[in-house]
């Protein structure tokens, strides 16, 4: 995960550590090694504020680390053990200090800071198998999760009006996309420029979905399949990411050892 | 003799292989190890294009859902095989001849 300033890169490893690399003139150098997880670290995410890092592991926990001003000292400020199984992925909300995690226990959990500690403020249930990844939309009002159950689920933040002040916002699954993916969906990315959702699937394909403009505010949320490359890779596609500034530019990676770059254009028929 | 039968389905055109095995004892604690050994043997023997599915014959094991889920999770399998002790046990399972 890149730091927001672009000078640092954090990497998570099966050896149980997370390394933080600093950009040098001729490459990168390790400036910190974060230890503590009991086994493989599956994912690391740098918060948009630049002051927090999150890691997660097969040890079922999510750790939140604070970065000091010098940016080279990291302190663990919370160990969150809300999940009951391996945690596969962590990702920060685009603007708030809100963290999402995806797990082998089939749920997505959200965490926020409360006083000086962190707590799990929501559990999103609905998937029937491991959730491999989650992605936030640009507004932070929605997130999308992808699963071994071969579906995508879109969750929307519900207003907490009528529940009294100080109550947690709740999240509702407003759309489930099934029947499109042939095998486990390993990654999902939500483009903050265009709103397009891309997926990486174990059936070797890359797909892009776009929201179908609702007829009225009361219509259900629907997404349509906008693009499908059946053999994007020679094996499972494991990762997908949209370029943050160039609309339509997509990167994917797979078990075949390749990284592929794609140019996507929204079809006029949609 | 820990496995009664193994049912194999191959679809070459779709590049899929499915192996179903029946532990002899419904609570057999070796089920995960057996399944993992089968999976490793397939991984080492078949071309990369094949999608592998190794699972317990439905209704024949008390924890079949949990075992099947582990075997289907390629990240878990990869991590398990990085454990040198477990890898050695798997290799021993695969090298034994009846």
TrEMBL record, chain A:
Provide the alphabetized UniProt keywords: Repeat, WD repeat
Query: Which residues belong to the signal peptide in this entry?
Result: none
The WD repeats lie at 1-22, 34-75, 80-111, 124-165, 230-270
Q: For this chain's UniProt record, which GO biological process terms are given? A: iron-sulfur cluster assembly
Asked whether the UniProt record includes Transcription among its keywords, one would answer no
The cross-references to InterPro entries, in alphabetical order and at most eight, read: CIAO1/Cia1, WD40/YVTN_repeat-like_dom_sf, WD40_repeat_CS, WD40_repeat_dom_sf, WD40_rpt
One term under GO cellular component: cytosolic [4Fe-4S] assembly targeting complex
Q: Name one Pfam family in it.
A: WD40
This protein's superkingdom? Eukaryota
What does the protein in this record do? Answer: Key component of the cytosolic iron-sulfur protein assembly (CIA) complex, a multiprotein complex that mediates the incorporation of iron-sulfur cluster into extramitochondrial Fe/S proteins. As a CIA complex component, interacts specifically with CIAO2A or CIAO2B and MMS19 to assist different branches of iron-sulfur protein assembly, depending of its interactors. The complex CIAO1:CIAO2B:MMS19 binds to and facilitates the assembly of most cytosolic-nuclear Fe/S proteins. CIAO1:CIAO2A specifically matures ACO1 and stabilizes IREB2.
What is the protein's quaternary organization? Answer: Component of the CIA complex. Interacts with CIAO2A and forms a complex with CIAO2B and MMS19; the interactions with CIAO2A and CIAO2B are mutually exclusive. Interacts with CHD1L, ERCC2, IREB2 and POLD1. Component of the MMXD complex, which includes CIAO1, ERCC2, CIAO2B, MMS19 and SLC25A5. Interacts with WT1. Interacts with CIAO3. Interacts (via LYR motif) with HSC20.
| Protein family (similarity comment) | Belongs to the WD repeat CIA1 family.
- Name of this protein: Probable cytosolic iron-sulfur protein assembly protein CIAO1
The gene that this protein is the product of is CIAO1
UniProtKB/TrEMBL annotation, chain B:
**Gene Ontology BP annotations:** protein maturation
InterPro entries, A to Z = FSCA_dom_sf, MIP18
Q: How is this protein annotated for GO cellular component?
A: cytosolic [4Fe-4S] assembly targeting complex
Q: Which family does it belong to?
A: Belongs to the MIP18 family.
Record protein name field: Cytosolic iron-sulfur assembly component 2B
Classification of source organism? Eukaryota, Metazoa, Chordata, Craniata, Vertebrata
